[in-house]
Design a protein that fits this description.
The protein has one domain. It is built from two helices and three strands, in the order H-H-E-E-E. It has a three-stranded antiparallel β-sheet, with no helix packed on it. About 8% of the residues have low confidence.
Length: 62
């Protein structure tokens, strides 16, 4: 019983993690929609918590 509760809590903890959401979308596209922020410089939507060299990482282009 305790093991199943720990598993359930760990899944709930990572359910809204942007990294987990990105991995989930790689496996099943469109299954997880995180809050995206617009990036006007590159005309895209980016994940707010994911940065490479200080730049937002685009995940959808418009």
């Amino acid at each position: 019983m305790k093991k199943s509760v720990k598993i359930l809590l760990s899944v709930a903890t990572f359910a809204y993690d942007p990294y987990t959401c990105s991995l989930q979308n790689l496996i099943n596209p469109g299954s997880c929609n995180p809050n995206l922020v617009p990036n006007g410089e590159y005309a895209c939507q980016a994940l707010p918590n994911v940065r490479v060299n200080g730049e937002l990482v685009c995940v959808e282009y418009y």
